[in-house]
From TrEMBL:
GO terms for cellular component: cytoplasm. This is Quinolinate synthase. Iminosuccinate binds at H25, S42, Y113, V114, N115, S130, H198, P199, E200, T215. Pathway: Cofactor biosynthesis; NAD(+) biosynthesis; quinolinate from iminoaspartate: step 1/1. It holds the Pfam family NadA. It comes from Acididesulfobacillus acetoxydans.
């Protein structure tokens, strides 16, 4: 029954005591985004995690994000307030199946979307997020590429660069709920609106969009384009930032099914308890960490 206000005050006090920083993804609950020191997309959050001088990082997101923070900053205490908040897409690839696939593709470079476990990252040449995927693939020149695990982002990048790639058959359960018929109906209801979607959407959906980009990309597009109405094809949490940074514009979620249960599992009570108990803590075994870090570092070095 504690109010958001009381909890936010408790969190601020504990944060000072613990020398902690709170990072939150754009898909988090509005009240969680509001207590964060930094809200961003996956790439911005990994840069923050790598660069912060805080002793404790509270990661309000899903498991792979906190794990990336632990890979990049092993000396910090990285907390995931809801230990069960995983990413179903990340679970669609495991290290053993990837090793098998690599054996059948000798000479291919493996590009791994950060939505993957540390064990999988450790098997890859370089990581990417949705905001730098094309740049990362381009940096590999003419090498053949196996892209894991998101087939939708993989195909989007492949078309953008005109480079065929082997695609792992993974996808995001949340974005997969959005169909082209939702976009067509929304366009009919809001004929002046621009359709902005995340590349994790199905191919039939991103083909219909006016703009495709990472969460930060979608927010930047809404801020800088002259349009005043937008049909939004990504997780509902992004509406909080869209509305607060563009108060005079209108945003319509393309479907009310765009809710990621895992992203919504983090609450203010859990953030407070994590700071209080310094738990649940995310760590990565050193051998895996070093290999996964090499793949993340290669991505971060691309700027
Ligand atoms: P970005 O914030 O990098 O666009 O990632 C989207 C996502 O699905 C994270 O789980
Ligand atoms: Fe994973 Fe999709 Fe949820 Fe992001 S929105 S955490 S990709 S299931």
């Amino acid at each position: 029954n504690e109010t958001f206000e009381t909890l936010a005050r408790e969190i601020a006090d504990l944060k000072r005591e613990r020398k902690a920083v709170i990072l939150a993804h754009y898909y988090q609950r509005p009240e969680v985004q509001d207590v964060a020191d930094f809200v961003g997309d996956s790439l911005q959050l990994s840069r923050q995690a790598a660069g912060t001088d805080a002793e404790v990082v509270v990661f309000c997101g899903v498991h792979f994000m906190a794990e990336s923070a632990a890979i990049l900053s092993p000396e910090k205490t990285v907390l995931l307030p809801e230990a069960e908040a995983g990413c179903p897409m990340a679970e669609m690839v495991d290290a053993e199946s990837l090793r098998l696939r690599k054996r059948s593709l000798p000479g291919s470079k493996v590009v791994c979307y950060v939505n993957s476990s540390a064990d999988v990252k450790a098997e890859c040449d370089v990581c990417c997020t949705s905001s730098n995927a094309a740049k990362v693939v381009e940096s590999l020149g003419t090498s053949p590429v196996l892209f894991v695990p998101d087939k939708n982002l993989g195909l989007y990048v492949s078309e953008k660069l005109g480079k065929p790639m082997d695609l792992w058959p993974g996808f995001c359960l949340t974005h997969d709920r959005l169909a082209s018929s939702d976009i067509t109906e929304a366009r009919r209801a809001h004929p002046r609106a621009k359709v902005i979607v995340h590349p994790e959407c199905r191919e039939e959906v991103w083909r219909l969009a006016d703009y495709v980009g990472s969460t930060a990309g979608l927010i930047r597009y809404a801020q800088t384009t002259e349009a005043e109405e937008f049909i939004v094809g990504t997780e509902s949490g992004i509406l909080h930032q869209l509305q607060s940074t563009c108060p005079d514009k209108k945003f319509y979620l393309a479907s009310d099914k765009l809710v990621c249960r895992n992203m919504k599992a983090t609450t203010l009570v859990k953030v407070r308890d994590a700071l209080r108990n310094l738990s649940p803590r995310i760590t990565v075994a050193e051998e895996t960490r070093l290999k996964a870090k090499a793949a993340l570092d290669r991505m971060l070095e691309l700027g």
